Amino acid sequence: MKKMWSACFILLWVCPLILWAQTIGSVEFILGKAEISREGRTLNRVDIGTAIENLDTVMTGPDCQLVIAFAPSSGISGSIALESGTRLVVRQEQLSSGKNNDFQLVTGSVGVKVKRLAGTKSGVQVRSPTAILGVRGTEFNVISFNGSALIGCKEGEVFCSPYSELTSQRAALDSGRSSIPGRLIEILESGSVQEAQFPEGEYDEQWESLAQNWKSFHVSLIVNNPVSFLDQFVPQWNQYSSRLDSAAKRLSSNPVLAKWFEEAKKGKVSDSYADFVKDGPRVMSDMIAVRPDMVMSIMVWHRLEELVPLVPQSEMNQKLSSGQTVRAFIDSYRRSSDSVREAASLFTAAEKQYMLRSGGMSPFAGFN
Question: Given this model, what pLDDT does residue 1 score?
Answer without folding.
Answer: 37
